Amino acid sequence: MDISAYIGSAVTAFQKVIKPLFELFKLKSEVATLRLENQELKKKVKDLEQRCKELEAPGEAKKLGYELCHCTTPPQIMNSIAHRVFVCPRCNNKVNLNATVAFSD
Ligand SMILES: [Zn+2]
């Protein structure tokens, strides 16, 4: 075997081993990237679902007869502390729906 044929076969063997290893490495890093993107997407979907719930919750609470305090966006659902008396858990604003409004004439 002359030297150039020897070098040629060595290079071929090197390529046969290194190329698949390199491709495997590349594939592994691609899989890792995809996994990260997948987690990122899952987190984004979860965050959006949570945000939707937060936005829907006050409307649902209002339908159930709860008062809303507009100190935050979305509004706070006020806790009922007595019959038709509500208090905001965030700012302690109180609403008494029993209080009669006096109109002066
Ligand atoms: Zn409030």
Descriptive notes:
The protein has 105 residues and is α+β, with helices and mostly antiparallel strands. It has two domains: 64 residues; 41 residues, no CATH class. Helix content is 58%, strand content 13%. It has one helix and five strands. The strands form two sheets. It has a three-stranded antiparallel β-sheet, with no helix packed on it. A two-stranded antiparallel ribbon has the order 1-2. The mean pLDDT is 87. Zinc ion binds next to loops.
Provide a concise account of the structure shown.
The chain is of the alpha+beta class and 105 residues long. The protein has one helix and five strands, in the order αβββββ.
List the helices and strands and how they pair.
Elements: H1 3-63, E1 68-69, E2 76-77, E3 79-82, E4 85-87, E5 94-96
This protein binds zinc ion.
Task: Note the main attributes of this structure.
about 100 residues, alpha+beta, three-stranded antiparallel beta sheet, two-stranded antiparallel sheet, about 60% helix, binds zinc ion
